[in-house]
Design a protein that fits this description.
230 residues; Rossmann fold; 7-stranded mixed beta sheet; two-stranded antiparallel sheet; globular; Methyltransf_11; methyltransferase; S-adenosylmethionine-dependent methyltransferase activity; SAM-dependent_MTases_sf; Methyltransferase family protein
Length: 230
């Protein structure tokens, strides 16, 4: 699975999709949640950092990001952008001391890992008490996919033949994700979404207003969770 992800996400693919307003909005929401909960100078691990685009945004907001990725070219790009970089596999133990981080950002990562429970436990371990995890992941239960399922059609996220969705092996609803966070010892504190999306043969209809009103129906789940202080 790691090899498949390395092949698919090497090169400029990540930078390309981050230029899409759909992904830019979910990224802005995630960075906003982190910055609202962490003071300037906080150390944040950016898991699946790609070329450092996310880290650059975090640094511009006063945080101290560490770019973390399994793709070597991504680490080189992050270093070239002036960010510290760490090579790691998010499917294994994270190479950080317990309680050493103020924040963790896991953008579009958890759906790729075989053992998401291990990833969430590791995020809790490396966070200090009161530290914040913000993660984003495609929503299994979007407004359109709920109707698709009722009609006997598979939700879009469950497509083993799709160009890139075939490496999304762990799809989540908000309820399932919240359950996993609590089981790992983290307390969910906020849910956001970028757009409620409707795909037609004529194109896509996106509503940020609907996503603000009903985030559990949106295309991307943006969730913040805290390691309890006690």
């Amino acid at each position: 699975m790691l090899a498949a992800n390395r092949r698919l996400y090497s090169g400029d693919e990540v930078a390309g999709y981050l230029r899409d307003p759909y992904h830019r909005r979910r990224l802005e929401l995630a960075v906003g949640l982190l910055c609202a909960r962490l003071p300037a100078g906080s150390a944040v691990a950016d898991l699946g950092a790609g070329g450092g685009d996310v880290g650059t945004l975090l640094a511009a907001r006063g945080l101290r990001p560490v770019a973390c990725d399994a793709v070597l070219d991504a680490g080189r790009s992050a270093l070239a952008a002036g960010l510290p970089a760490v090579a790691l596999d998010v499917g294994d133990e994270l190479p950080f001391r317990a309680g050493s981080l103020d924040g963790v950002f896991a953008g579009e990562i958890i759906e790729h890992v075989y053992d998401p429970a291990l990833l969430l436990r590791e995020c809790r371990r490396v966070l200090r008490p009161g530290g914040v995890l913000v993660l984003t992941t495609p929503n299994l239960a979007t407004a359109q996919d709920r109707l698709r399922f009722l009609a006997g059609r598979a939700p879009r996220q469950v497509d083993p033949f799709h160009e890139y969705l075939h490496v999304h092996i762990r799809p989540f609803t908000h309820g399932l994700l919240a359950t996993g966070l609590r089981a790992a010892g983290l307390t969910p504190t906020a849910l956001r979404s970028n757009y409620v999306l409707w795909r037609t043969r004529f194109g896509e209809v996106r509503s940020a207003w609907a996503a603000r009103r009903w985030p559990a129906l949106g295309g991307t789940l943006v969730v913040a969770a805290v390691r309890p202080a006690g």
